[in-house]
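Hey, quick one: can you model this chain's 3D structure?
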Amino acid sequence: MVTPAPGPQNGPGQGSPLAVSVDAAGLPATTATLGALATLLLAARRTGRRVRLCGASPGLRTLVRLAGLGGEFEWEPEEREEPDRVVE
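Sure thing. Here's the predicted structure for all 88 residues.
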């Protein structure tokens, strides 16, 4: 599901005002998923928006990072992470 992420211009909460939120909880960690996310990212950039991935599995997070796209998405913190904290 793709919805506008909460932000000052599109609802309560935090997040970029020009972000699209993607519920990635059910997405498999495959190259097909990676291709679809890259296509979505390109389309979002063309319209001046960012993409926020929510609920991505550790495998999908790893795949996106290995493809060099980890820094291109906004990430919802994992349950064990604190917001704005980098876990290595």
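One thing worth noting: The mean pLDDT is 81.
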